[in-house]
Design goal:
Neuraminidase; about 300 residues; mainly beta; 4-stranded antiparallel sheet; 6-stranded mixed sheet
């Protein structure tokens, strides 16, 4: 069975960059906030990996953010604004709204011999003024901030087993929930996570996560869990529709830019389908995409942005 997601119009991301005179800036992160706004984090320069392998913790580059209010039903631009976040020392990989402020988060953080750590979580106002800084650990795979200012971080293998000077990594459980000041309020204790590949939250703020080595999908309300056996290895993102009757996963190791859907009934998988994204009946060549709850944003290789809320 094949399901088609067809678009007949787009939001011109390239035109937005030209409008704000930041055509040469690179897209560092694409995300959707708790406020249903799209956040496009752009960097004046993204530093190269150390020895071609290791992501540096510092960038000392200028960051800007285009925030986009979208009509999710009709894929139309309602409005946009540019936040000049200024030069930040930290190499930023994630952006999320946190209350009326902005969380900028770096994926990597050193633990130094003298006990100091890189403070890779920076809360700023829309002008880039720093309000507070703290450390959320090394090896962060993804980040979601909820409407009540909880910060959810998932970790890849180096953040779980230790690198960059960490003998006891903050992310050793693979999945942590923090308060707005960086205090740990919950972490995974049930699952042997070696790499938390993807996470999402649903309309009721249940947390869903998908991890290596089992490649199971877990839904938790932080007290009770449901486990789904997903027959995809290495997926990096998934979407939950509003009715929680469908899941859409990227195809993982097979292809991160193709998708497979699953039918749910009574919290059990009862079938699957292929899922294609089309613009005027032609398949899109995707450059970036992000999911939050039932919402999806796609950017293709022509800097066209497409958004949809899946009911």
């Amino acid at each position: 069975m094949k399901r088609l997601c067809e678009f007949t119009n787009f939001i011109d991301y390239g035109k937005l960059k030209e409008q704000y005179n930041i055509r040469d800036y690179e897209l560092a992160n694409l995300s959707v906030g708790y406020d249903d706004v799209i956040y496009l984090l752009l960097a004046g320069n993204i530093p190269e990996r150390i020895s071609g392998m290791f992501v540096p913790t510092k960038s000392n580059t200028d960051y800007k953010c285009i925030i986009v209010a979208a009509d999710w039903e009709n894929n139309e631009l309602l409005g946009s604004e540019l936040y000049n976040l200024g030069v930040q020392e930290t190499n930023i990989h994630f952006i999320q709204p946190i209350g009326n402020e902005i969380l900028l988060l770096g994926a990597r953080a050193y633990h130094y011999r003298d006990g100091r750590t890189d403070k890779n979580a920076i809360i700023v106002d829309k002008y880039g003024n720093i309000i507070k800084k703290f450390c959320l650990g090394d090896g962060i795979e993804d980040c979601i901030v909820t409407s009540d200012k909880r910060i959810i971080t998932s970790y890849f293998d180096e953040g779980i087993f230790g690198n960059y000077g960490w003998d006891t990594p903050l992310g050793q459980s693979g999945l942590v929930v923090w308060n707005e000041s960086g205090g740990k309020i919950w972490e995974n204790t049930k699952y042997d996570i070696c790499d938390c590949y993807a996470l999402n939250i649903d309309e009721s703020n249940n947390l869903w996560f998908y991890y290596y080595t089992d490649f199971n999908l877990i839904k938790t309300d932080f007290h009770n869990d449901q486990i789904f056996d997903i027959d995809i290895d290495g997926s990096s993102a998934f979407l939950i529709n509003k009715k929680q009757t469908e899941l859409i996963f990227d195809d993982g190791y097979k292809s991160h830019k193709q998708f497979t859907g699953y039918h749910l009934k009574h919290n059990k998988i009862i079938g699957k389908f292929s899922f294609e994204i089309l613009y005027h009946k032609s398949q899109l060549l995707l450059q970036r995409y992000t999911f939050r709850s039932s919402k999806a944003v796609f950017i293709d290789d022509n800097d066209r942005m497409f958004c949809r809320d899946f009911s």
